From TrEMBL:
The gene is argD. Its cofactor is pyridoxal 5'-phosphate. Pyridoxal 5'-phosphate binds at G106, A107, F139, D224, E225, V226, Q227, T282. Binds 1 pyridoxal phosphate per subunit. Its main location: cytoplasm. It catalyses: N(2)-acetyl-L-ornithine + 2-oxoglutarate = N-acetyl-L-glutamate 5-semialdehyde + L-glutamate. Belongs to the class-III pyridoxal-phosphate-dependent aminotransferase family. ArgD subfamily. Pathway: Amino-acid biosynthesis; L-arginine biosynthesis; N(2)-acetyl-L-ornithine from L-glutamate: step 4/4. It comes from Natronospirillum operosum. GO terms for cellular component: cytoplasm. This is Acetylornithine aminotransferase. NCBIfam families: arg_catab_astC, argD, PRK01278.1, PRK05093.1. The lineage of its organism: Bacteria, Pseudomonadati, Pseudomonadota, Gammaproteobacteria, Oceanospirillales. Transmembrane segments: none annotated. Coiled coil: none annotated.
Amino acid sequence: MSQQHPDRSVFDQVMTPNYAPVDVIPVRGRGARLWDQHGREYIDLAGGIAVNSLGHCHPELVAELKAQADELWHLSNVYTNEPALRLAQTLCDLTFADKVYFCNSGAEANEAALKLARRKAWADVGEAKHEIISTRGSFHGRTLFTVTVGGQEKYTEGFRPAPQGITHVSYNDIAALEAAISDRTCAVMLEPVQGEGGVRPADRAYLEAARRLCDQHNALLIFDEVQTGVGRCGELYAYMHYGVTPDILTTAKSLGGGFPIGAMLTTDDAAQALIVGTHGSTYGGNPLACRVASKVLEVVTRDEVRANVTARHQQLKAGLEAINSRHGVFSEIRGMGLLLGAELTPAWEGKAKLFLQAALKEGLMILVAGPSVLRMAPSLLVTEADIAAALDLLGRAIEQVKAETEAA
């Protein structure tokens, strides 16, 4: 039975319990602002978990989506379509890639990358060369393959037996990677900045070592840029900041600006392993998604957008440091571009959700990255005024948490 304005209780009645959303139900968004069912306004520094790269309902994206909706929605991969071809060409022009595979999400892009790595090694050498190295604390998606490659055991609990041949090493640890890699390794998969793992940027020397070791052992280097890509970290993709080029790159989240799309970018040499029939996606290369994503790339690559990411990064980081000078709740503030994490001090360890909930009560949406890190991933177009207002609300929320904790 439908309701005109369903409330949070309906979720528990009709949705599977794998999520626990807050009581607030947003119904409208513009830029970095959201409004809920009761008309209350919020500043959004969560960005749909780094998805809404241009904020909510960006007029240029809305116009492209409406225009494509009047022309063509879906075919199948028996055919190609103009928006997909244009987007693939743009991605190749803007990056190292020669070939692109489209899908619907970051997990699907990572699944494709891992399957490609194994299939290329199988074609070149044989089944013995199948091992994959990833890092502890990493997150690569929720399929059984990607959740196993991800370095957080809690996500595989209850789903074993899991795919085999996967090794996890400490992030940013060159010696550990050197010890783990061998001629049986087909791929090393890394996030240039660990997102779910606490917003931890890689050291340049670490990524350079990964590139060297992959070359030495004839393994593919995969960069998971689902969260770091499409301008999020300042450059179009974070690998450009480091000057280390992967063999495969995965992208999603910000690529569609809120419309579901994912892509795997790779070289001619690696792509040849995916011969006809070896992989696919029913909705991959959907004309609606591809047309919107092309507009996202057009906007994100404008000089003024990149300048705004740099300026707002500096403003947000300085503001978090100022808050910390008053309240002393953060042990470290880190990140790149508009992907920032504030790690809580040992005294507040495990209590990140308290701050998230308090912020929401103040009218601010933020994220967590694990139990002890507050994460912010706002629109790349977020304004100076919005960041200033958000910092004020966050300061109030932290004050409230401290007061309630001291009174308890």
